[in-house]
């Protein structure tokens, strides 16, 4: 069984590359989907395509809606969603992605440090697993893709 896995969450570290590279090294039957990872491209897509805005609210609104097309389609295609919360910034969008996955009945795995357990208790409560690191996510993916 080959899984489609959407990688949601923080974009300020190389966790996606680490996960993808190790999954490939282990020959796991997994294809990965992701949002646009270039922060400037993601933030500016609305004004780049649809024109300038005087207000940052409308600039962000345009970008969020265009980015949502990719994100929603990816979550809908995914068999599993991995949602990583990093330490540097608050990832409100990642919490939204987890909620959307839950609303669709998608299995999702949350990754965060113990420090955020209380803040993310509702997100964690709906998750199929709460991991502290990428190695644990890889072990879960390995297990759920085991041959019958």
What does this structure look like?
This protein is α/β, with parallel strands linked by helices and 148 residues long. The chain has a domain of 103 residues: Rossmann fold. It is 50% helix and 16% strand. It is built from 6 helices and 5 strands. Strands 2-1-3-4-5 form a 5-stranded parallel β-sheet, sandwiched between helices. Helix 5 links the parallel strand 4 and strand 5. The longest helix is centred in the middle third of the chain and has 22 residues. It is globular and about 55 Å long.
Question: In short, what is this structure?
Answer:
Helices cover 50% and strands 16% of the residues. It has helices at 15-25, 39-50, 56-77, 92-103, 121-126, 134-144; strands at residues 3-9, 30-33, 80-84, 107-111, 129-131.
């Amino acid at each position: 069984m080959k899984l489609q896995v959407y990688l949601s969450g923080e974009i300020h570290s190389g966790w996606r590359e680490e996960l993808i590279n190790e999954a490939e090294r282990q020959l796991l039957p997994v294809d990965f989907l992701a949002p646009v990872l270039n922060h400037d491209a993601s933030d500016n897509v609305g004004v780049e395509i649809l024109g300038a805005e005087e207000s940052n609210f409308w600039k962000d609104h345009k970008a969020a809606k265009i980015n949502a097309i990719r994100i929603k389609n990816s979550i809908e295609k995914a068999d599993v969603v991995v949602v990583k919360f990093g330490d540097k910034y608050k990832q409100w969008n990642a919490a939204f992605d987890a909620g959307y996955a839950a609303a669709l009945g998608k299995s999702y795995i949350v990754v965060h440090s113990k420090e955020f357990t209380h803040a993310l208790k509702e997100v964690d409560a709906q998750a199929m697993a709460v991991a502290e690191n990428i190695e644990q996510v890889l072990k879960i993916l390995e297990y759920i893709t085991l041959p019958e």
